[in-house]
Design goal:
The chain has eight helices and seven strands. A five-stranded parallel β-sheet has the order 1-4-5-6-7. It has a two-stranded parallel ribbon with strand order 2-3.
């Protein structure tokens, strides 16, 4: 999983990736994270039992994506989940050429058109913001809507306990 966070911006992408990572680990898959060298994040992920790889500091997003592709191509996972916004096409294509399957979460960048799977919570956002050419290139590889939302199991269980009677009926 490629995601970032820190004590200033929080752990939103890390936590969302963690939900999916825990499910994959429970199914017997090896899971690791590739993230910044921020101790807050690496300690958090280590305490959760994940192997953590870190990227060196970068100057701009283009360099960050180049470093990401370089690290992923060196680690050679079967699949990488990118939970970073607006991926870079060249980086995604580099990972795929190296034989790595690439899935991207909520990706509206150029790289979203080249991934093996584009996972998006809100199909309206993808339809409204993803360029038409990207939607056409990714056809059949877009998984969006409520059925594909990455939600922690405790929230799914909570959802199943809610009934209209508990909150009143809306008409």
């Amino acid at each position: 999983f490629r995601a970032d966070g820190n004590s200033s911006i929080g752990l939103g992408h890390i936590k969302r990736s963690e939900v999916l990572a825990l499910e994959l680990a429970a199914a017997g898959h090896s899971v690791a994270f590739l993230t910044t060298q921020d101790t807050f994040v690496t300690d958090y992920l280590g305490q959760k039992g994940f192997l953590v790889h870190t990227l060196p500091q970068w100057g701009d997003r283009r360099e960050m994506f180049a470093l990401t592709a370089e690290a992923v191509n060196k680690i050679r996972p079967a699949i990488v989940f990118l939970d970073v916004i607006n991926t870079d096409l060249e980086a995604v294509e580099s990972m795929r050429r190296a034989g790595v399957k690439v899935a991207s979460i909520d990706d509206l960048g150029p790289g979203g058109a080249a991934v093996d799977a584009l996972i998006g919570v809100d199909i309206g956002i993808l339809d409204g913001l993803l360029p038409q050419s990207s939607r056409e290139r990714a056809e059949g590889r877009i998984f969006a809507g409520a059925d594909y939302a990455i939600i922690a199991p405790e929230f799914v269980r909570l959802r199943d306990t809610v009934t209209p009677e508990k909150f009143g009926s809306r008409k």
